[in-house]
Amino acid sequence: STQSTWGLLIAIKEMKAVCYVFLVIFMVGQVSSTDYIIDLDKPPIVRYEGIVNAHKNEIKEAYEALIKLIPSSVKAFFEVLYNTVTKIFFKEFTEEIHGMSIILGISERDLMIMNCLYELKSLCTSIVARDSRGKLLLARNLDFENGLEKQLRRIHISIIYKKGGKEFFRCGGLAAGVGVLTCMKPNKYSISLNLRAMHSEVDTFKNFMLGRPPVTWMIRNILTKADTYEEALNLFSKTQSVSGAYITIAGLRGNEGAILTRDRNGAIDIQYLTASRWFISQCNSDHWNSTDRRSKLAKEWMEQMGPQKVSLEKIKTDVLFKSPIMQANTLATVLMNPIESFMQIIVPNGEEDNATNYIERANVGEEKEVIYYGKEPTINAEQY
Prior knowledge:
The chain is α+β, with helices and mostly antiparallel strands. The protein has helices spanning 2-18, 49-54, 56-66, 72-89, 91-104, 108-116, 149-154, 201-209, 215-225, 229-238, 293-305, 312-320, and strands at 36-39, 125-130, 136-143, 158-163, 166-172, 182-185, 189-195, 245-250, 257-263, 266-272, 279-282, 330-337, 342-348, 358-364, 370-374. The longest helix is centred in the N-terminal third of the chain and has 18 residues, at 72-89. The radius of gyration is 20 Å and the shape is globular. The chain starts with a helix and ends in a 10-residue tail after the last strand.
């Protein structure tokens, strides 16, 4: 009806004003030295029990502060979406959300909102590079424009997804969220997601109703299906989603590195590593029309580094930890070398008076995480 149509448009307009606050909820928790395990062989409803029980209070506190900003019309739209389209097309994910809802005492509808709207305000930098030995490296900064950086840094966690009793893939930064942003399949490939803001909220909701998944859900689905770099590249090239994205993929060696510029239907452009192109970088604008200063500086600093000196450590200190690529709203830096099954998550501690303190959590193909504190590399507190 005309009335229903206007109601939906009003909901969308209101959503635009408040959606940024939902980007962060699924990451709520507490910094821990433990790798959290999600066993994909278990029923979906119980998979997230360990994570949610460990961070229950923190999740609820953040939820209670932010849910007040959600207009009732937006809630009504997601009530319909969750109970129709989502349950039909994404049964596994909705069962996982249902299990978390029972523990948290938060409605499934609201958890659906918190799981689906993160993409709209994430501003990131991703770099794929080939070192002098021919091995592939992937490094990224994860940024959010939400004003809650200090809380989020304290709760960024590492999750290992298992299947058949073995590690299937691992991700950083997700607590109480069923999608994934930064992941690695050990000795296979690694991926990271950057926001590509190109669609109106009206278009996004239309595509939700068509049964297309949020980008983070699409990534997790592809991780479960693709066992090689080539398979992942192929699926990311053609799989539909509700919104556009930049996907960075690093394989094991040689030229197995690419950055895909995607719209809702798949890749519209792919940049590949070649014999002469040893790195590619991506921020949040199309490379053929970019005015992003971060993108320009990332390329300049990588070129200054050179292919003979490049390493994850050098990318970290000489690019990702330098302003303006390292920002006040940077939540985490993630470094990955899939051929060595290495993934390192670095979370600034958010202390205003000493920005050089940081937390490093190193995962080298093991379940045990090592946490240590230090003041290297030195970060200029004024820049940071």
